[in-house]
User: Fold these one by one.
Assistant:
Number 1:
Amino acid sequence: MTVSLQSPGRINKLQLKNRLVLAPMQQHKGTPAGHATDYHVEHYGRRAADVGLVIIESTAVSQDGRLYQDDIGIYSDSHIKPLGKVVKAVHTRDARVFIQLSHGGRKSHLLPGERLLSSSPIAFSDEYGLPFEAKNEQLEQLIGRYREAALRSREAGFDGIELHAAHGYLLHQFLSPISNLRTDSYGGSPNRRLQFVLQVAIAVREAVGPDYPVQIRVSASDYDPGGLIPLHIADIVKRLEPLLDAVHVSSGGITPLRPLDVYPGYQIPYAAVLKSETTLPVIAVGGIHQRALAERVVAEQLADFVAIGRPMLDEPDFAGQLLGKQPLSARSGS
Ligand SMILES: Cc1cc2nc3c(=O)[nH]c(=O)nc-3n(C[C@H](O)[C@H](O)[C@H](O)COP(=O)(O)O)c2cc1C
């Protein structure tokens, strides 16, 4: 049977009405205390009509892990109610909604008195401060933060969780040999560099139970000769597979190095590696903005879902164009 963008999909036991996903995109509209507002309710509600799944932006599991100070968070019970309104707005449009749980590690933006933490004391770039190497006790606290965030996410009504382990943020900082130079049980070999992410995934899974969708977003390439390549990421995801329900495949962010060639769908080959190396449903993303290309991704089973980012910001009905419900624009038809 040929799969099309219109085909229903499934992550864990959750049925999705089609194969389109709204990619997580920070809106920089959180309150100083990290709360979602009416802006988020309206923003996500408007973009939910034609996608099967909305993944809301990077949402911090602790205040000092916010990527930017205007990010939203889920590090206190007071965040649950405003996020619940976002969930309701998406459900009203007959879409499902995941929250992306994140911690920025060495790429966080801090308030006075907070300290940057990472796997090892290496700064991301000259513009970021030097982080300290998190001690085991602090890692245990962080795992607890993820656990609490997962419980709050479920209480707010989210249909699932995406763990942000991409783009050079804390979980990625543990996975990559570029940022993790530890010699204890959390570093020194691929297996040990995986331990922190593994423990986070175990804690989240234990908190939400086996039937609740939990997926991971990964960077399949570090774009650096000393960094991770797609097959390394496939090995990592294979180890995590019993704990996960899907994988969302992005790239980059562990250093300021960018890919040399960014063309429409340039990350699809990475998604295809994860598709062939694991049994998990795969979400492809990155410049997949033309209807023909998006259809090819699912028809040829290079991935199971296609996430769309930037076009959905200025054209909230862009997903409808890819589904053929709206006339194609220069962008979706070219
Ligand atoms: C304004 C903006 C904010 C973003 N915020 C996030 C985020 O919070 N979490 C994340 O994993 N990726 C984030 N991304 C990356 C997108 O999810 C997506 O991977 C990227 O835009 C490529 O897809 P596109 O070519 O369809 O835009 C952001 C991208 C943009 C443009």
Note: The mean pLDDT is 97.
Number 2:
Amino acid sequence: MTTARALPGEHIHIAVNEQTAPFWEAAKEERLVAPRCGDCARFRMPPTPFCPHCQSKAIDWVELSGKGEVFSYTVCLKPPFPGEVFPFVPVVVSLPDADGVRLISNVVGGDIADVHVGMKVKVAWNPITDGWKVPIFEPDHGD
Ligand SMILES: [Zn+2]
């Protein structure tokens, strides 16, 4: 069994702006949120100043369950920087309770050979630089 790991947080830096700050502030509290239009109720991720469907500026940040499903993935056998060599699994995760929203993330834990499209996953949190956290996902065995 080969276990996928998260990229070490000290290598991950994010940029926060007015539109994305609510996502990152919630992540810091280990809450997964997504922006939903305050008028037409469609999700829009990444967050934008105007709804692409109705041009509304109204936005509601909705807390999600953290459950997801692997939409696409790849297996990388070594990280993109010098140092310790270990496998990691970049993924695109669909979030069923936020219609149309997908996050680019990593799957960690479990055997890399078990990762597949449609795999059920649940959010976990990877501490990174400057006190932020990024959502990552682990296999959801329903427990
Ligand atoms: Zn809208």
Note: Residues 67 and 122 are 4 Å apart (CA to CA).
Number 3:
Amino acid sequence: MGDDIMVDNICAIATPYGVGAISVIRASGPLAIELVNKVFKGKDLTKVKSHTINYGHIVDNGNIVDEVLANVYIAPKSFDGENMVEINCHGGIYVTNKVLKVLLKNGFRLAERGEFSKRAFLNGKLDLTEAEAIMDIISSNNDIALDSSLKSLRKNTYNLVSSFREKILDIMAKIEVNIDYPEYEDSVDVTHDYLKPIVEELIKDMEKILENSKISTLAISGIKTAIVGKPNVGKSSLLNMLLDEDKAIVSNIPGTTRDLVEGSINIGNVTLKLIDTAGIRESDDFVESIGIKRSIDALNKCDLVLLVIDSSNELEDEDKQLLELTKNKNRIIILNKSDLESKVKIDDSISMSALNNEGIEILSKKIIEVTEINSIYDMNDYYLNNTRQVELMRKAYCALLDSMTAINNLSDISLIEIDIKSAFDYLGEITGEASPDELITALFTKFCLGK
Ligand SMILES: Nc1nc2c(ncn2[C@@H]2O[C@H](COP(=O)(O)OP(=O)(O)OP(=O)(O)O)[C@@H](O)[C@H]2O)c(=O)[nH]1
Ligand SMILES: [Mg+2]
């Protein structure tokens, strides 16, 4: 790839694989309009205005392949900043592929994943946070996720990050002027006392964003929720109840679930990515013990634990161990089998009966309470949208903490500037203004084909 990325002409099916009323094939590149025009019977696409929809036929050696509408966008006023044609053909798999093949025979190559968006980024049409916002809109499952992604597409995240970069750049500029032109009278004297409150303020503001982002990233990407407990307490029954389908096998034989079973649900504005796990106990059974390892792994990686306990039996050691193991996690203790006589009492737990479909409202309330999802409404958009952004801001934050230590130690100002500059660069990676090439490539390959 490299430099030739902009000079070649790419195409891809932009709609999902499958049968529908229409499919859209995207074509982009300097010669995109001319090349499509060669296989288009209708108006001369090289002469039409930008942003027009043109009726015609795609032809292959004089044979009509399909009746289509061709949307023409002339550079730079297109999604990716290149000349573009979007061909709307009939939505059958065979016919769509046939139109695509005609393009591939006539000067286009197949686009890579996310290549249109990558071109948009390289042409300055999108920054990285906007590109991510597109992905997030596509994958959003609830109103909070959709709303934040749409805001990010309107540069909300970019502006948030840029406001920090501008402040940091201002400090760096003042330091440079001080070093290079100490005799210049109008410049402020950049002393340790001068820097301290400015850097302190930046650190405080970033802390707030990082704190808020713990919740916003969960709200946007969904909450990884592991259902754990000892065998036979009703974990799979709970999963099935929440998903409203018989997804996991339920039986009265302890050790029924051997592998992780997953499913996704929305509770209000919260998306839970549920994982039912194998009951955790000492086991000599080879397959079961692999399942149990996976359960522990899921437990460690999840954002929220639903710890299920069978309240119709006295607590056993396994329950006690799990209560201990999960005590520092976001967790909800569920006393299941509330239809039977209760023999267990635990503070701050909720009672449910997965068998009788009882307790879902109280669980929903508890989930919203424990995850603090609704606090996103009070954050005034002062948060980041995904873990990539959060990790980079955390690095920037640590670099500022280092600079603070250096300020307190009265280190040389030019040394302090090194830390400040690295905070500036980390923030630049969030927006893509200072991102290494490999990272950009890796990021865009997460996109769907045709995006
Ligand atoms: N009475 C009663 N029985 C229940 C309830 N929930 C589940 N059960 C029964 O408990 C047994 C075990 O249920 P599962 O959902 O398979 O339990 P599990 O925790 O997934 O078990 P493992 O996969 O073996 O770890 C089954 O016979 C269920 O019908 C409940 O709320 N009340
Ligand atoms: Mg099970």
Note: The longest helix spans residues 192-221.
Number 4:
Amino acid sequence: MGFELKDILTQYSGQNFSLYSEHINPQLVRVLRTIGFDKFYTHGEGAYLYDADGNEYLDFLSGFGVFALGRSHPTIKKALHEALEADLPNLIQLDAALLPGVAAKTILEHCHDGLERVFFTNSGAESVEAAIKFARAATSRQRVIYADHAFHGLTYGALSANGGQDFKTGFGPFLPGFTQVQFNDINSVAAELKKQDVAAVLLEPIQGKGVNMASLEYFSELSDICKTTGTLLIIDEVQTGLGRTGKLWAHEHYGIRPDIVTISKALSGGFMPVGAMICSKEISNSVYSSMDRAVVHSSTFKNNQLAMVAILATLHVIQEENLVENARLTGLAFEKALAPLVDKYELLQEVRGLGLMIGFEFGKPKSFALKTKFQLLEKARTGLFSQLIVGPLFTRHKILTQVAGDAMNVVKILPPLVIGQKEVDKFSEALDDVLHIAHKGNKLIVDFSSTLLKGALKSKK
Ligand SMILES: Cc1ncc(COP(=O)(O)O)c(C=O)c1O
């Protein structure tokens, strides 16, 4: 009998959680069951996901930013089908393949002049690893500065630059030479850079954990100090890149020209694992400095042809569908729709972000009844209140969102860049409803406790 994917999908239909629990990660399954996120999705299209019961979900998580073009985009599918049909000469390795060259050229056409070379990777973390290695090689310095709350991936170099403890606990020791400074505090970073022994400052233009933003002055002063101290500025655009914030690159908002840029997620078109580290000729030449060192930094799948096709098709769609401008305009529509909620609900303290990367910060209310409720939840677990928003957005309104990080009361949305006013209205009305209930009585807590209880019972099965 031949291989039939549809037979496998039919045979195992609905067994996703038991298989995952048995063979991959039972703790994740427990978490999903506990918070009521244990659905069996069957397909996805555009900004929507569908489950086996025919329910439609608005996907404002978009695979942590992977689905900038929405799911199952026809242009990417067609391009990948064509590539498969063409029997391309993939991964010969001792070869300089055509499509990686075209993909690199196309990416660089969208970058500032100082960026002239691309190193392809399979993920965001790998792009960051390349950036760290290239920065050390180019400067002959070892130190790397990163910020509190930073997230750059979970491999050792990237994890050494993680600005929290949650992901680090149990995995030390980390790479030597890494120093944490306070995000958006120019004095703390300047004090390190003036020692003139720092290879690079590694920062997200908007931090994914918490949707924290820095001022224009911070980034422009930092860029100047980097230049005068011979330090490279690495901007990690793995989450923010390719239009998410209403400009192709989030660093454009700050008017800076980083020495190294890392990208991934959206570049995939939602299909192929891919990333890239982009830098100047000088930086690249410092690594590939002689014939002996021609493959001194590399990985087997870096130039995978299907990934290259996905990149080219993705960049085409971003331009053709005007997605950067759409992200900017839809971001403004969100701003308009959400601003009244901050005035209306004392628990919602701030809505921040740029384009379609938006964070909602919740905080201790003033009124006595709400304060007691909020404190009760915070006592149980810091950041639990934000789960009380994400939960009902999903269970009552079928909208997928996320808590922006551990132990913080920030909810984040990363909608696909293809959404319009319909989705803005749907989300704003849903958030209004959930906040209304949160302010009214204890229904959210009761509902949430019952979801937890049901989840806990299911987990025991
Ligand atoms: C800014 C940033 N850098 C790096 C990474 C790591 O990417 P990956 O999960 O593909 O390794 C992420 C992932 O969320 C990210 O947001």
Note: The CA atoms of residues 346 and 424 lie 22 Å apart.
